[in-house]
Design goal:
By secondary structure, the chain is α/β, with parallel strands linked by helices. The protein has helices spanning 7-14, 58-72, 80-89, 97-118, 122-125, 146-158, 177-194, 210-220, 237-246, 260-268, 285-298, 310-318, 331-334; strands at residues 22-31, 37-45, 50-53, 132-138, 163-167, 199-203, 227-229, 251-253, 274-275, 301-302, 327-330, 352-354, 372-376.
């Protein structure tokens, strides 16, 4: 029988409940010599356990610091579900937008802290065993000049990005049939560059209306898109319902879903097949896991929006690939300096991210890259 390492469990069992009480929760701004700055949130318990999460948006930090921190200090670090429910029930505006972003920040921090307490990665604590997750390359900002676009698609495919999402430059129904034809032609060129064995997805950043989206979708069905993302504003549920009935192309949305209730509304109407809830915005890891359970009942995929990647990749790795087959990797953003201050920034190799063995989300700051470190409050944001 294999020997079981019980060291961390002994530590937790022998600790008094007081040792698990959250005694400190701070927001820190890191600045490089170049002027690059990022915000992280940290927590510490009475027993000396420390958690960290980031980078986070200034808006999320502002709201979390002003309204939520005081409700978390003094709580047991393992009571993330009770804390989430208390935060959600404590404000009449908690059902969406910036309040949920602030809650997401706190929730993700608590999951890292729990990982530090147990000495395990978050995806393991969530019950997962996938050491790697496949990404799709999100091609925001790349040239859409035909030759350059095709060359980039082929280049990325050779690097292992066999799932690619391209964004059509901002167009509207008022641009007329010539621009519609250009939008169809771009899909043809991308499919030609990628071949039939690669996945292709298209995002139009909710710039269209239902008639235009339906007409375009009909014309590109032959190019076998994996999904058509955010054709219209997410608030327009009826348009999503109608569009899903008019085309065979799977419809995707959800980066602006604020909780499981938004997801349920869309799935019970068969309005989408791909849920793109973002753990930085939808309520954190705790809420995204619940969303995965709802999606599994409806036979839909959850492929989190990739505003950031630490929480998203751990949730995806904790779920069945039948529910969470991919994680978004915004190539331009993530390959840049988004994780500038971290020692082990997540980077795909041959189209896959490897989950860290380190505790929590595996975030380690690189002191050599930090020129200035300061504690900030909501007044500084």
């Amino acid at each position: 029988m294999a020997e079981v390492n019980t060291t961390h469990y002994q530590v937790v069992n022998q600790s008094s409940m007081q040792d698990l009480v959250i005694s400190k929760l701070e927001f820190i701004r890191l600045t490089a010599t170049s002027g690059k700055a990022s915000i992280y949130v940290t927590a510490e318990t009475e027993g000396g356990n420390k958690g960290i999460y980031g980078p986070i948006d200034a808006d999320a930090a502002l709201l979390a610091d002003k309204l939520l921190v005081k409700k978390v200090l003094g709580r047991n670090a393992l009571e993330h579900e009770a804390i989430w429910n208390d935060l959600f029930g404590s404000n009449r505006h908690s059902r969406g937008s910036h309040y949920l972003m602030g809650m997401s920040t706190i929730d993700n921090l608590l999951w890292d802290l729990k990982g530090q307490i147990f000495g395990q990665p978050v995806y393991k604590i969530l019950g997962g065993n996938r050491k790697q997750v496949r990404v799709y390359g999100s091609c925001l900002g790349f040239s859409q000049e035909p030759e350059k676009m095709q060359a980039k698609a082929r280049e990325l495919k050779a690097e292992g990005y066999t799932h690619q999402k391209w964004f059509l430059n901002k167009t509207s129904p008022q641009d007329g049939p010539a621009v519609m034809a250009e939008n169809v032609e771009k899909v043809r060129l991308l499919r030609e560059a990628l071949g039939d064995e690669a996945d292709l997805m298209i995002d139009v950043l909710f710039n269209w209306d239902l008639p235009y989206a339906a007409a375009w979708a009909k014309r590109v069905e032959k190019y076998n898109l994996r999904w058509f993302e955010e054709p219209v504003p997410t608030a327009n549920l009826d348009a999503f319902i109608e569009l899903s009935r008019e085309t065979s192309v799977p419809i995707a949305t959800g980066e602006h879903f604020y909780g499981r209730w938004d997801v349920q509304k869309f799935l019970k109407e068969d309005a989408i097949r791909v849920v793109q809830a973002d753990p930085e915005w939808c309520g954190g890891v705790s809420e995204l896991v619940k969303i995965c359970a709802i999606a599994s009942v409806h036979g839909a995929h959850v492929i989190p929006h990739g505003h950031s990647i630490h929480a998203a990749m751990h949730v995806v790795a904790s779920q069945s690939p039948d529910v969470c087959p991919l994680v978004e990797y915004l190539i331009g953003k993530m390959d840049g300096n988004y994780y500038h201050f971290e020692k082990n920034a997540p980077r795909p190799i041959n189209g896959k991210l490897t989950l860290p063995d380190r505790s929590g989300f595996g975030i380690e700051l690189d002191s050599s890259k930090i020129n200035k470190r300061e504690i900030i409050t909501w007044r500084d944001l």
